[in-house]
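User: Fold this; C-alpha cells only.

Assistant: Input:
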Amino acid sequence: MMATARDKTGKVYKIRELLQNNFQEEYEAEQRLLRMEREIEKEVVAANELIMTCEDEDPFVEPENASLAEVLQRLSAVSSQIGEATQKMATIQKEVADVSVRVQRVEKKLGTTLATLEEVKNVMAIGDVARPVNAADSEFEFNPVSSEEELNELDYKLGSNTEYLTKLTNWLNMKIVSEEPNKRLHEAMDLVFERQFLPKCSWKGGGKPERKIPMSAQTNIMKMFLVLGSTRFIAITDAFVAKFFLKKLPHAKERLDLQDYRSIQSLKRASSSQVDSSLVETLE
C-alpha cells in the first residue's frame, strides 16, 4: 500500500501493521491461555475422579502419592495374610503329626486288644468245660500230686480225657472261693499239688545241685490253671500263669517250712508269731 498525500511519511501504515501484530500476539496469547485452562481443567477432573474412587485418600495428598500408599497398604495386608496362613499351616501340620501319633497308639492298643481277644477266645474254648457244678461234680474225688509220675499222669489224663478234665475243673472251681486271679491260682495250686512236692519243681527244670521237674512242660495242667485263674470278668493269659509259677516255685521250700512252723506254733499255742510278716506275704 502506497502512502497518501496526507501520509507522506508512512506513519499510518506503520501504526496499522503494529496494531495488526499486537492483535495477532494477543490472539495467540489468548489461545495459549485457553489451552492451558483446558489442560488444567482436565487435570482437575482426573484428580476429582481419583479422589472419588479412593474415599480413604487424603484430599491434600497428590494422586501419585495416594496410589503408592494404597499399594503399600495392600502389600502390607497381603504380607500379613501370608504370615497368618503360614502360621495356620504350621498349626495344621502339628495337629496332623499329633493325630498320626495318636493313630499309631490306637493301632498299638488295637493290636494288644486283638491279642487279648485271641487269648479270651482260647480261654472260652477251654472254659466250656467249667460248667455249673452239679451233684456228680461234688462227689468227685482228687488226690493232690505228690510225685513226678503222678504229675505226668495228670497232664496226660487232662489232655486225653475231656470228661475227666470237665469234672476236675468243676470240682476245683467249687473249692476256689476268691475272685482275684492271683489268689485263685494260689488256691488251685494248693489243691492240685502237695506242698512237699512243689520244692522239687521249677518253671524250666533248672536247679542246683540237681535238676528239677519242669512245670512249664505240663501244658495241659497249665491250660487248666488258665481256666481256673479266669473269671466272668477277667480272662488271664498264658504269660500271667507263667509269671505266677515263676514267682511261687522258687519259694516252695520256704512255704513248706512256714507251714511246718505254723503247725508247731499251733501246737505250742504261741501268743505271737516270730516269722517276719513281709516274708509270709511273699511266700503266700
